[in-house]
Structure formats: structure tokens, C-alpha cells
Amino acid sequence: MTTAPTSTSKVAADASGGSLRFYGVWLLGIAALIVLPMIFSSGGSLTSFSLIGIAIVFALSYNILLGQTGLLSFGHAVHYGLGGFAACHMMNAVVSHGWPIPLPFIPLFGGLGGLVFAVIIGWVMTKRAGTVFAMISLGIGELVASSSLILRSVFGGESGITTDRTALPKMLGWSFGPQLQVYYLIAFWLVLSAIAMYALTRTPLGRISNAVRDNPERVQFIGYDPHVVRYLAFCFAGFFAGVAGGLAAINFEIANSAYLGAIQSGLVLFSTFIGGTAYFFGPILGAILVTYLQLGLTNLTGVWQLYFGIIFIGIVMFSPGGIAGLLMMHRPLIRAGTLWTVIPSYLVAIVPTVALACGVILTIETVARFSGGDPINLFGIAFNPTSPVTWIAAAVLVVGGFFVARLTWRRIADAWDRAATVARDRGYLA
Amino acid sequence: MLEVRDLHAYYGKSHILQGVDLDVAAGEVVSLLGRNGVGRSTTVKAIMGEVAPQGTIRFKGKDIAGLPSYKIARLGLGYVPEHRDIFPSLTVRQNLLLGIKDTRRPGKWRLQDMLDMFPNLAARADTAAGVLSGGEKQMLTTCRTLMGDPDLIMIDEPTEGLAPLIVQQVGDLIARIAEAGVAILLVEQKLSIAMRISKRVYIMGHGRVVFEGTPDDLKANAAVRQEWLEV
Amino acid sequence: EDTIKIGYIDPLSGGGASVGEGGLKTFQYLADEINAKGGILGHKVEILPLDNKTNPQESLVQAQKAIDAGAHYITQGNGSSVAAALEDFVTKNNTRNPGKEVLYFNYAAVDPSLTNEKCSFWHFRWDASSDIKMEALTNYMKDVPSIKKVYLINQDYSFGQSVRSDARKMLGAKRPDVQIVGDELHPLLKVTDFSPYIAKIKASGADSVVTGNWGQDFALLLKAAADAGLKVNWYTYYAGGAGGPTAIKQTGLDHQVFQITEGFPNSGNQTAMDFEKAFRAKVNLSLWYPRAVNEMRMFKAAAEKANSIDPVKVAAALEDMKFDVLDGGQGFMRKDDHQFFQPIYVSSFGKLAANEPFDEEGTGWGWHLVSRVDTPQAMVSTTCKMVRP
Amino acid sequence: MSAAIEVRAVEKRFGNVSIIRDLNLTVAKGERHAIIGPNGAGKSTTFNLISGHIKPTSGEVRLNGDVISGLRPFEINRRGLSRSFQVTNVFARMTVWENVRCAVLWATGHRYAFWKNVDSLPEVRERTAQILDDIHLTHRRDVPAGLLTYAEQRELEIGITIASGATVVMLDEPTAGMSHAETDRAVSLIRRLTEGKTLVIVEHDMSVVFGLADRISVLVYGHIIASGTPEEIRRDPKVKEAYLGEEAH
Amino acid sequence: MLELVVISTLNGVLFGMLLFLLSSGLTVIFSMMGVLNFAHASFYMLGAFFGFQLTKWIGFWPALVLAPLLVGAIGMAVERYGLRNTHKHGHVAELLLTFGLAFAIEEIVSMIWGKSPLDYRVPALLDFPAFTIFSTNYPAYKIFMLAVSVVIFVALLVVLKRTRVGLIVQAALTHPHMVGHLGHNVGRVFMAVFGVGSALAGLAGVIAGPALVTQSDMAASLGPILFVVIVFGGLGSLPGAFIASLVIGLVQTFAVALDGSLASAFGPLDPSAGPSVLTDIWNVTIAQVAPIVPYLLLVIILIVRPMGLMGTRES
Ligand SMILES: Nc1ncnc2c1ncn2[C@@H]1O[C@H](COP(=O)(O)OP(=O)(O)OP(=O)(O)O)[C@@H](O)[C@H]1O
Ligand SMILES: Nc1ncnc2c1ncn2[C@@H]1O[C@H](COP(=O)(O)OP(=O)(O)OP(=O)(O)O)[C@@H](O)[C@H]1O
Ligand SMILES: CC(C)C[C@H](N)C(=O)O
Ligand SMILES: [Mg+2]
Ligand SMILES: [Mg+2]
């Protein structure tokens, strides 16, 4: 499942095995979604999986804009949030009117919520791309988020509106009270939306979106109106963001103005970019990582925001193609059979790099806990933040780790160059 | 003035320049000829530091290999690249002014001289350079580099995409520059101009210089022309 | 033996962080105090800090995390919007997961609806709800003849709105002659410059301002007032919060800023003052939340009374429980709505008298008793229809 | 029968400069028409005016008899006019195959379809493959266009232009920057691909112009000073003076 | 009424100038380098905290000079070791880098100075009312802020006109190599521009710190409005940013001053209708919507005139 530009000559040979592998990847993904909760069944992991599922749908929808069409939006959460509100209102309406609509259909209404807004606002917004679009989306995002606090009857003010997912008509005997059932509902919609969004990339519209991203001017001369293309992409992105919002509403049973706000918009931009916009599965990885960090880091350290920042800076600087880009870099090497020449240099690099990371962590935690005096627990070793021993350890790790690590990074680069040359010679790399 | 010895350069792992030697004396006009893709542009880029050079490059006796390009330029080496890197959002005038390295020391060439020389540019002085016609862009880049008052100017394919008449004009311009005492390293495909104005020519093939001599030598040597210039 | 984990769900980052940190330190201090005396029924108490970024939805994620970590109790205070979401969450959680109930101890979210139409058996509130406070505040104000023109300025969310509507209603009833010359709602924690609002207050000719503003919304409001030289009396809920005292001192409003609370440092009650002293020595903060002390101590008492740390039994024991509060006097947890009733104080901020040892934020000024309302007078009715398990 | 392109009294001003003045040009159906002229004469601007990239200040342009001035580029393209650019203008991050296929999609009627799989549209696939074959880039089909060599990009540029099957094709300096051999190849390519179509071409390379064109128009300062067969143009003294110089072949 | 108008005008101008002080550095960076610097407000915060700390150690006036220099140095380091490497990967990458930076800076600041507001006071020298109008005081410090803003505006205008830095940076955005070939040290120019922009943010922090709250969340609360100012004013236009600051300051102040709502203009709606979007809209006062007015202005201007008020280019 990739839209990657691949090798030159070996493509035809792969084609027959390709479709098998293609369906294999999808089936594997679905199977994983089904068995995951059986392996990790604690309440905590179920909640995490559910949130990750929602984040994936949201990030994929964002990539329709950023990765596929080249539109940088600072207000994508508007559709997510409106989807959430639409779903909440719909659930409440279903309950109060006694409509026979079971819960699994609700995300569709979330999607419609996101879509309707996109349809209304999108035409003027997508007139232009680039900074103008980005800034309009910032403005619209703030406008909608602030208005949601004023239009209390629809958005419920600061506290938002709540709903009860179990009050809807049952389906297949499921009440959707237990988190497990909600997880499967989310997983179901995740698969559905992912397939739909993947399919979208394979349609004429999807391809033309790519063309608009690369060169909107030229698109006009092959018969397309880039404005229409951007608008349609915007609507699709809005719809799937709304689906994600609807899923969130089901999961939390609440929708409030924070759904719509800049923080959500920023997070989805983060997830998508960090995962990698050039590949379909990039945003999936990004959503998993970011959600996981968000949930996990706060447990480990009080200064999680600092790590969050550092990790992002690191990824942006050292892997601008995102995680997916980093992974896909290796594909030609695997095909050319030269990956094994790089692995040893990776292994060598791990030790000093980890040492460096530990040193940084130790330094940060030492500073952070200096006044509190709580011990730092790093891989089972306790450090006292007020003791000079800790400081020296941190300094040695950082400085020593850095210098040794730098040498090993060079080694990686060299090994890479060699492997890539071979891959190029064998026609697996352009 | 410019002395290049055993110059090597790579794009990634491909070895493009495999030991280029060439010299340009002060005030001299020298052409660097050769087929497409033999590495002529790469040679000048390596001299300017845009491509990492290996080997010796001396300019006015100073080793400039590996210096950042702004330092090389400040030594008095001008470079007009082949893709007409004009600054599209700036006006023609602003483009020209950016050629001046130090506003406190006026050079030989004034803004007005340039505009006089090319009425086309004068008429467009205050329009954004991005809308210039292909030919106008070429004139602009050359003039811009001249504004920096170089002692040696390296021009990469100045006549590409120019109308025949303008090609002649550019030829005249180059001759004028040479008259003003500026040395020129001309990278060209069109033999006619090169032959007309240069004192010496180099021909490149396979990443190294394969022929060196005067235009007359070259005229006399049909075999070289046949093998290295496909004419 | 198991530790009792209490999920502390409040902002530890973003705009509310300063308030949330203060609360966290308070609860950790109280947990240490209980642990030092052997814990609750032999169980140690542990506070799990969980950052909700003042966001209702994030609070639910954090509540779930608390539950997953084995907490049967959560506590929260900063923001009624969060409280409403949490109350709803625990109620649903407890009906869906019988045997795994969670109690929610609310120490500062004072929107009355939390113990009225939204009330829940699983929610207990130790802070006086905003209408109780307004009742007490207006009882004091009605006897101040110099109050003629009142300006209301509040944050635009459920709590601010209830302050505003209660003030209108109660002032109207108790002092019909007082004129409300302005009634302002501004966005929560978003305004950076209050000068335009001060200009309006000034133009209205008000002599008193009533505000429920907290956090930076209070500090900035007073700062702008100070700059413009606005001299009025301030009747507030949270002037004592972070930044407030500094701003008042800068304004030079000596004993012109009033605050309504369930306790304050210079209350004169010896045990409370001893506690304050020890607390300041250890935490380097003044005690903003005397109610947190009541909450934790009463929790211990209830568990001991029920002889169990099972939330359902503790909840039952808490209902109608009487308790001697930190600042003196007796309070009780009303069974009908799980609202705690206790004596309430109006205090003013200014130069300290000889018997008032505590100043605030190093300003040299501190809180001074103005009036005290005893428990029976600080009661309001409820519309709660409690659903019991 | 109406002409393929008719430009009538078109004027184009930028600010207060008239770049195109009283331009009249008629290109008959099936004709190969070259426009030559000094740099800055307005050749590319003429292309822009005809293809809808910019709008004339006054005057009108007709395509197959219908007025098209004022229409947007994609509307004009849908009526069967297609153009290339002087500066290479391809979809850099997409592969060669995708580049050409995108250009095929509208003409094959798939438009903005989001319910069809592009990979399973046989006529699109065949046509794309055909064009790649024509422009000799089949072996490079999976390379991102941005990584092609300059000459290959120029060829791709031509491929994209003809992919829609337009009946009127306009090429702006298609061989600029190519070597002799490459130029020769490009010329025969253009000749083959525009068989039976109307072609308008701008070139500075006189061998290309005289080798390809049925008729030539000479544009100087935004005005056509001469129009005729290659022979007539070659002999025209005005043209010699304004454009060809001594170097005329 | 006259009183309210006069005072609101004054307040609006003062607030507008504060906005300009804050956004001038961002304009310089954004318009010249095209970098959407989300960490700008964080530099502003750093300025405030450095200002606070240095004031404690060496007094306000030295701090006023030193703190911006420090922030400028940090900015230069960020450009040199971060942005410069990211530049080739496009604006989104640059933006995310500054995004991450904003996160990190906020946490570092609260690690060092805590999360509570600091007691950062107006220097004694300026702690008096400059003048009184309609019995409202105007503190000398605010007048000082206004003066600084105007000085910065004029200074920037002159510097940008006089030097070719602007041209060099703009040219380098499209063809950095070419600019180097012309003899300009592009790296240093970029670093300097970013440094100056950051230093301006730092200066704004030192000055605005005592006037507003100095707290670890002060960056987050001011970020977006700064983008509104510079985009509304028009990218690349310093006068535009200046005017936009004034317009937004005035509009917002006057919006607060106005009590009107549809209900007060046309009478209340039929109460039997119950709450709905309509009643929400009907009853909301102009004062309540004041904070969203800038965003409304932004969206409208971008739709009508994508280059902003005085801008010359779109992006
Ligand atoms: N950026 C690049 N990456 C990889 N290879 C390159 C790059 N630029 C040029 N080359 C290759 O280097 C070789 C020499 O290129 P160069 O541009 O120096 O040729 P040239 O002699 O100037 O020819 P031209 O007539 O095309 O300008 C060519 O084979 C070209 O394909
Ligand atoms: N948008 C514009 N604004 C102002 N002037 C313009 C604009 N577009 C083109 N021009 C001017 O119009 C003239 C004609 O330009 P055009 O690109 O059409 O020339 P051309 O004939 O194609 O030349 P070349 O052979 O060099 O490509 C040029 O002088 C150019 O500067
Ligand atoms: C911490 C408090 C200031 C919160 C406020 N009382 C509320 O109910 O929202
Ligand atoms: Mg070349
Ligand atoms: Mg042209």
C-alpha cells in the first residue's frame, strides 16, 4: 500500500506478486486489529487502541489535504469537531425520538457534519493554495472554535454536550457500554475509512490532486480546474475528519469546543508530517506514535512537553520524510539485497546513540527534579538529582555519547552510500 | 589568473570530472567546448564551489578550492550560470543592484551602462524579472554579474534560446567585456561565437580536457571536431 | 497492603498550570500527612498527577488512565466545564462496570448545576457552590450602604454565568436600590489586556465590582485597573489565587478587595494557623484550598467509619456525615445532593494587623476577617433527584 | 471551413506598456505554423493569450470559429487546444507514467471521477503507454519526472502536451537546450506526433523552423511583420534585418 | 460617551502598538525568510523571563539591552543549527521545527521559573501616571511602550530601505547559490535576519513582561493573533503590519466598549421560542465577540485581497 515512486525496470516483474502482497498487507492489518485486544486486554490498552484508531482516521483525512493535494491547513480540527458535535446531536436525537438507528451508523453522521461545513466554506477557502489557504484555515479554525463558545445552544459552551451511547438501539446484541465493543466499532470504521481513502488515491481525482500539488498552473492546461480539484479534496478530507470526530464522540460521549481548536489542528498536522506525507501509511505511523507519546509520556515524566518538542525537532531535522520516509528509504536496498551491508553499522551506532539519549534524559530530569529531589529512575537505576555523581554521569553520557555517536553516524552514511550505489547499479534506485 | 589542475568532481558516486586542467590568463578570452553532458558546466560549478571540487584551483595565486562561493566571488571571479537564475520576484533594477558586492566601492560597470547597452532591459527596469522573455533573462544575468566588477567572468551557454540576431549581440557584448580587460571563460556549444572571439579553446570529453589550442588549430583539425563536437 | 490511589486530574500544563500545580502540591502534602500517621485503615495514600490541560475530553482520557492504574478515587477542581464531563463520566462508568466503581471528589468546581440538575451519587463537592458563596457575599454587601452602583464582570462559561445571574438575582432581592450599571462576560483565559473593560467600568460610574474571575483573568483585570487608577471596591471569589495579591498590592487597594472563601490564613483559628505555617514551610505556597484539607481528612474518617476503602461503602459513609472543618466549626455533607456545607468567610486584603501573621506572595499584605457566615446560614436548597445504586 | 486559430486585432498591455499590438494571425487547420521573432517580441505572450493563461486587453481569439478569449485555460484545453511551455513545466514528484496519464484523463472523459480506479481504465492505460512509447520514455516510466535529464524532461513536456489528443498543439521552444542529435530526434518526433493536427511552434533554431513549418510568421515588438512560406520569409529583407541577421541559413 | 470614545481610542492605540512591538520581529522573519515562525511568541516569552531575571541581577535598563541580545543569540543558533538544515525540505518542515521548539521552550521556562506568574514590575523610573484624562491615568510605562514601538517601526523602515538585506534574503529564497555567486554571504544574512527578528521578540518580552503577566503560558496565548497582524497587514510590508496592529487594536477595543447586541437593537426575541442558535446570535453582545473580530477580519481580507492590506505578493 504505497503510492511511492519505485524502481525503474523491475516493476513489471513485481506486478503479479504485487497484488497478492497488496491484499496481504491489508488483510494482515485487519487481522491485527481483530486480535490486538485479545493480546492486550487491559482497560488501558483498549482505551489507547481506540484513541489511536480515531487518530489514524483523522490523520489520514488530513493527508488528503497535505500529502495528496499540497494544502497546508491549520484548521482541520474544525471538521473533526463539527463531526463530533453532529454525532452527539444525532445520538441524542435518536434517543429522544426513538429512531431505529443503531450506534455503528453514527460516524456516518459525523462525516456528514464535517462534509457539510466543508461544502459550504470550502469553495472560497480553496480558491488559492499556499500561504493564503493556510492563513484562511487558521482564521476559520479560530473563528469556529470561538463561535462554538458563543453559540451555546448548539455547542454547549465550555463544557460541551454529552450523550449516552448505550441508550441507542442495540445491534447484534451489543450495547456498546464496554470499551471492547467501542474498540471494535472504531476498528471497523477505521478499516472502512482507510480502504475508502486509499481507494481515493487511486482514482482520477486522487491522481489529479497530486498533479495540483506539484504544479497547479500546468494542471489548467491539461483540462482541469485546480480550484475544483482542491475543493473536492477539501470536501473528502472534511468528510473523513468528521467520521473521526464522530468516532471520538462515541468514544468519549462528549463533544466540546476543544475538539475544534488549534491544539487538535496542530496535533493532526504533527502526526501526519511526522509519519510522512509521501506514503499512504505514513500518517498511520504518525498517528500511532503521537497518540502513544501523548498517553505514555505524561505517565513517565512531568516535563513530557519538552520530550515531545525534542522528538519532533529531531524527526523534522533528521528525517524530513517522516517515519515512513525513513522506512521506505530501505526498500530499494532490500530489493537490491544490499541492506545487510548497512545493518552492522546500525548496530554499532545503537550503543553510543542510546547512551547519548540517556545522557540527555538524565540531564533534563536532573534539572526538572532538582528542587523536588525525587529520584530519577532510568532503566531500573535510581539517580539522585541533587548528587554531583548524577551530574557527572549525565555530562559524560552526553559529551562522550555525542562524539562517539557522531563517528558511528558517519559510518552509517558511508555504508549507505555504498549500498545505494550498488542498488543504483542494479536498477533499483533512480 | 585562473589555474585548474587535476580537478575531480562527483555527483553522488558518479565521477563526472576526471582530472581537468585549464588556465585562463588575465584579460584572455578562453572557450570551453564539448558535447552535451561532458561536464563543462560541472567544471565551472566546481570552480565556484557549487559542486565540491577535488584538486587544485588557483585564482590570482590563491587556492580557492573548497572556499564558500561568496568568498570566491569576492576575489573577483564572476559566474553566469546556465539556467538564468534570475530572482523572479525582484525587479530588473533590483536584480542588477544585487550584483554589486560592495555598495561603497563603485565598479567599472554602472547600472546606467547596462541599461544603455540593452534597451530591452531599460524598458523593463521596474517590472518583476520573472516575466522577462527568455532572452531578456539571459542578458540580465550576464549584466548582473558584471555589476560585481569581476576580473574573470565565467559564462555558461549565454546564447541558449536566443534569437540569431541577439546571439550576435551577445557575441558583441562578450567582446566588449573582453575589451574592458575582463578575462572570460566561455562555456559554449555554438562554435561560431567561440571561434570568433576566443584566443584559445579547450575541448572537453569524458570528464577531461581532450584538446587545447587556438581557434585556428581547431579549424584545422577536422578529426577532433568530428570526434568531440559532433560537427 | 494496597495503596489507595487518588487520580488528581487538573491542568499541569497550559493556561491553568499554575493553579493546577498548587492543588497538586496541596494534595501531596495532605497524602504525606495521612501516610505519616499510618495511612487510611493501614493503606498508604498515593496521588497520581494527571494533566487534563483544562480540557473536558482530555480529562476523560486521564480519568480512564487513573482507573487503569488502579485508582478508585479521583479528585478535580479547576473548571466547572471539566467537572461536568467528569461527573457524567463516573456515573456512566459506575453503572456500566458494577464492582469497579469510582468516586469523584470535587474540591473547587462550583457551578451549582453539579449538585442540582446534573447531580450524581458518585460526586461529592467540598467547596461551597457558587450560589452559596453569592448568598454569603450579598448578605455582607447588603449591609454596606456605600454600595450604590455595581458592575459585574465574569468569565463567559458556566461558572461565570452563574456568578453573574446569582449576583443579579440576590442583589436585586436584598438591595433593590442598588443599580447594576454593567454586566460583562468575557472569554475565559483569553484576554491579555483588560484596559478596555476598565474603561467601561470607569465610564459606568460604578463604585463596586463583583467578579468570579480567577487565574490570569483576575490578575490582569486588577493590573489594568491599577494602571488606569480605577478606585472601586472589589467583591471577588478568587482574589487570593496566583498573581492576585501582587496585583492588589500594586494597585494600592488597601482593604478594598474582598474575597469569599471557606477559610483563609489569618482566620484566627489556631489549628488552622498552625497548619498554614507548616504547609508554607514545606510547600512554599499559601494554602489556597482549605477545603482540600477537609476533603482528605473527611475521606479518611469516612473510610474508617465504613471500615472499608470500597468506594461504594465510603460513599455511603460520607452521606450526611458531620465533620469539624479546618478553620473551625462544623460542616456536613448533605445526602440530598452531596454538597458539603460549612462556615464561610468574607475577608479583605490589605495591611496586616498585629495578630495576623501571614502575608501573601511576599507583598507584606494579607487577608483580614470581615465577616463569617455559619453553616446553617450558608445553605441553599437543591433540585437534585439523587439516583442511588 | 474556419481556421483553427484566428487572432484578431489583439492587444495586450502590462501596466502602460503594450507588449502585443494589433496582432492578427490565422492558422489554418492542419497547418504547421512557426512563429519566430527576436527575444522579447511577445511570442510566449502570444501563446499565453491564445491558451488563456492571460487575457487580452482588447481584440479576440477564435478556436475553430468559436471565440475563446476570456475563457480559462482549462476551458480552452477542453475545446481541443493544448500547449507546452518554454520553461519545463512538468509534475516533478510524480512519475513519468503518472505525468502522462494525468494529461490523458480529462480527454478520456474521466474528469473528476472519484469512483473509478485509474489503474483499471483500459483506454487510459493504452493511450498512456502509446504516448510513452512515442516519446521514447517507456524505459523511464517509473522515474519521478523531477529526476529526468533536461532533454528527457523536454520530451515529457511534449508528451504531456499531446496526450489529451488535442487537435491544435502549441509548442514553445521545444528543442531549447538540446544538442544537435537530440534536436533532430525531437523534430522527427514532433512531426510524427502532430500528423494531421494543427501545430503552432516557437523556435529560435532555424533548422527546426525551416525543417518543420509550412508557414512562418515573424513577430517583432508584438506585431507580425511578415507571414508566409519558409522561402518567402527567408528572402524577406525586413525579417533579415529584424531577426535573422547575417547568420541566415 | 465622549469619554469612552476618547479613552477607547487611546487604549486601542496603546494595545495596537503593543501588538506591533510583538509582531515586528515576526514580520521581519516571515516577510523576508518566508518562515512561519511559531516559536516567535516563545522568543517573546524568553525575553520576558530573561528580562525578569536580569532585572533582578543588574536592573531593568541593562536588562532591556542584554535580554534581547541573548534572545537574538538564541535565535541565531536556532537558524544556524536548525532552520538552515531544514530549509531545503520546505516551509512545512521549518514550521514544524519551530512548533517543536515552542513546546520545548515553554517546558524549559517552566522548569526553571515555575508555572506561576512572576512578580516582574515596572521600573521605578517609569512607575507614575504620565497624564490623566477624564480621571483615567495613563501610566508612563505604557507611553514608553508606545514610544519604543514607534522607534522600532521607524528604525526598521530606515534599515530595510537603506540596506540591501531585504533584497538579498528575498533573492536567496529562490536561488541561494546564485546569491552566493554574486558575493553575498547568504548564511550570515539569514542568521542575522533571524537573530534580529528574535531579538525584537525578546525586546517585546522585556517590555511587555511587566505590563502583562510573565508566566510560562504567555507564549501560547499570544501566538495566533500575531499571525493575524502580519497577514492582515500584508506579507512583506512593515507599514502594513503597523497599520494592521493599529486597526486590530482599535477594532478590538471599540468592540469591547460597545454594549450592543441584536437584542438591544431590535428588542428581545419571543421568549417562548426557547434557546436556539438564533437566540444565541441575537443576544450575544459585540463585546463578547471582540476576541474573534481579528480572525473575522483576517478571513475576509484574505478572501477579498489575498495579499493583505498593503502586501505586494501572496506568499
Ligand atoms: N545534479 C546532478 N546530479 C547528478 N548528475 C548530474 C547532475 N548535474 C549534471 N549531472 C550529470 O553530470 C554530467 C555532466 O553534466 P554537465 O552539466 O557538466 O554537462 P555539460 O557539459 O554542461 O552539458 P550541457 O550541454 O547539458 O550543459 C551529465 O552526464 C549529467 O547528467
Ligand atoms: N506579466 C508581464 N508583465 C510585464 N511585462 C511582461 C509580462 N509578461 C511578459 N512581459 C514582457 O513582454 C515581452 C514579451 O515577452 P515574451 O516572453 O512573450 O517574449 P518571447 O517572444 O517569448 O521571447 P523569448 O524568445 O526570449 O522567449 C517581454 O519584454 C517581457 O518582459
Ligand atoms: C478553580 C476554580 C477557580 C474553578 C472555578 N471555580 C469553576 O468552577 O470553574
Ligand atoms: Mg552545461
Ligand atoms: Mg518565449
UniProtKB/TrEMBL annotation, chain A:
The chain crosses the membrane at residues 20-40, 46-65, 77-99, 105-125, 180-200, 231-255, 267-292, 304-327, 339-364, 389-409. One of its GO terms (molecular function) is branched-chain amino acid transmembrane transporter activity. This is Branched-chain amino acid ABC transporter permease. It is found in: Cell membrane. It comes from the Bacteria. It is a multi-pass membrane protein. It comes from Bradyrhizobium guangdongense. Its main location: membrane. Keywords: Cell membrane, Membrane, Transmembrane, Transmembrane helix. CDD domains: TM_PBP1_LivM_like. GO terms for cellular component: plasma membrane.
TrEMBL record, chain B:
Keywords: Amino-acid transport, ATP-binding, Nucleotide-binding, Transport. The keyword Hydrolase does not apply. It holds the Pfam family ABC_tran. Residues 2-231 form the ABC transporter domain. InterPro entries: AAA+_ATPase, ABC_transporter-like_ATP-bd, BCAA_Transport_ATP-bd_LivF, P-loop_NTPase. It comes from the Bacteria. The keyword Magnesium does not apply. One of its GO terms (biological process) is L-amino acid transport. Involved in beta-(1-->2)glucan export. Transmembrane domains (TMD) form a pore in the inner membrane and the ATP-binding domain (NBD) is responsible for energy generation. This is ABC transporter ATP-binding protein.
Automatic annotation (TrEMBL), chain D:
InterPro entries: AAA+_ATPase (IPR003593), ABC_AA/LPS_Transport (IPR051120), ABC_transporter-like_ATP-bd (IPR003439), BCA_ABC_TP_C (IPR032823), P-loop_NTPase (IPR027417). PROSITE patterns: ABC_TRANSPORTER_2. Keywords: ATP-binding, Nucleotide-binding, Transport. SUPFAM superfamilies: P-loop containing nucleoside triphosphate hydrolases (SSF52540). The keyword ATP-binding applies. Residues 5-246 form the ABC transporter domain. It comes from the Bacteria. GO terms for cellular component: plasma membrane. GO terms for molecular function: ATP binding; ATP hydrolysis activity. Involved in beta-(1-->2)glucan export. Transmembrane domains (TMD) form a pore in the inner membrane and the ATP-binding domain (NBD) is responsible for energy generation. PANTHER family: CONSERVED COMPONENT OF ABC TRANSPORTER FOR NATURAL AMINO ACIDS, CONSERVED COMPONENT OF ABC TRANSPORTER FOR NATURAL AMINO ACIDS-RELATED. This is ABC transporter ATP-binding protein. It comes from Bradyrhizobium guangdongense. The lineage of its organism: Bacteria, Pseudomonadati, Pseudomonadota, Alphaproteobacteria, Hyphomicrobiales.
TrEMBL record, chain E:
GO terms for molecular function: transmembrane transporter activity. The keyword Transport applies. InterPro entries: ABC_transp_permease, BCAA_transport_permease. The chain crosses the membrane at residues 6-28, 60-83, 95-113, 140-160, 189-212, 218-235, 242-266, 286-304. It is a multi-pass membrane protein. GO terms for cellular component: plasma membrane. It holds the Pfam family BPD_transp_2. Keywords: Amino-acid transport, Cell membrane, Membrane, Transmembrane, Transmembrane helix, Transport. Its main location: membrane. Belongs to the binding-protein-dependent transport system permease family. LivHM subfamily. This is Branched-chain amino acid ABC transporter permease. It comes from Bradyrhizobium guangdongense. The lineage of its organism: Bacteria, Pseudomonadati, Pseudomonadota, Alphaproteobacteria, Hyphomicrobiales.
